[in-house]
Amino acid sequence: MKNSFRIGLAFVGLVVGGGFASGQEMMQFFTSFGVYSIFGTILATIGFAFLGMNIAQIGYRLNTSSHKEVVYFLSGRTLGSILDIFITIFLFCVTVAMFAGTASAFRQVLGFDPVIGSAFMVILTVLTLMLNIKSIINVIALAIPYLLGLMLIISVFSILTTDLSLAEQTVLAEQQRSAAPNWIMGALLYVSYNIASGVAMMTVIGSTASSKRVAGLGGILGGLILGVLILLVNIALFAKMDVITGKDMPIVEIAFNIHPIIGVLMAIALLAMIYSTAVGMMYSFIVRFISPKDKVYRPTVVFFGILGFLASFVGFTTLVGSVYSLMGYLGFAIIAAITLTWLTKRN
C-alpha cells in the first residue's frame, strides 16, 4: 500500500503543475461552465483513475524509461510514430509553460521581474535532472499532502465568505475564458491533455512498482486524489469569482485575500507544483532521445533548459489556453488506444 500511495502521489505531482495550482487550468476547463463544472469534476476523476491504473500497469509490464515503447505497444508502429512525435513536442511545451508560470508567479506575488522567476525555475529543474530516477520521482510526489491541506483551507474559507449569490457566481464564471465549448468536452480535454503529456513519466513511475497490482492501485489512488483537488479548487474559484476575474493566478489571489501568510504558503505550493511538473516533463522529453547514463545527457539538459527559458516569454495564460487545448484533442487517440488495450488484452 505504501508503494501504491507513493506512485499515486507522484502521478498527482506530475499533473498538478503551475496551471492547476494557480487555478488557471481549473478556470478554463471547469469553473467557466458554472454549476456544470461539478459534473465535469466527476467525469475527470473517473477518467484519471481508469487511465492512471492502465498506464501504470503498462509501465510495469514494459519496464520502460521512455513513452516510445508505450505508444508503439498501444497503437502499433505507424500510429505510434505519429503519437510519439506529438507527445515529444508537447512535453517540451508543458515544460516551457511551467517556466512561464513561474515568471507570472514572481511578478504577481513578489513584484519581481518575470525573467528572474523563469530563470529560477530553469536552474532548479536542470539541477534536479542531474539526480537518479528514484530521487526525481520522490521529488515529484513530495508536495501533494501539503497542497491538499492548503486547498481545503482555501475552499472552506471561500464558501463561508462569498459575497455572491449562486446566480451571480454563474454569470461571472460563464464570462471567463473557456478552453472548450461545454463542460463535457472541458473535462475530457483536461484528462486527455494531461494523459498525453504525462504518459511518458507515468509509465516510468509504474515501472518502479513491485507488482502489477501495486502499479494499478497507485494509478487509481492518483486519480481519486486528483479528483478531490479539482473539486476543491473549482469550489474556491466559483465562490470568489468577483475577486479573481482577470487574474493570471486566481488561487493565489484568493489565498492573499484570506491572509498574507496563507498567500505566501499558497505561492510556495504553486512554485512546488510548477517545479514537480517541470522536472517530470523535461526528464520525459530528454530521455526520449538520450539515456540518463549517456555522457551527453547533462549537457543536453542544460541546452534545453536554456531553450525553454527563451521560449517561456510567450506568456502563461496563452500557453494554457492554446497549446494545452490542442494537445487535449490529440490525446484522445491515446485514450482510445488505452481503452482498446484494456478491453482486448487485460487477460
UniProtKB/TrEMBL annotation:
The keyword Membrane applies. Keywords: Membrane, Transmembrane, Transmembrane helix. The chain crosses the membrane at residues 33-60, 81-103, 115-133, 140-160, 180-202, 214-238, 258-289, 301-320, 326-344. The keyword Transmembrane helix applies. InterPro entries: YkvI-like. This is Membrane protein. It comes from Ureibacillus manganicus DSM 26584.
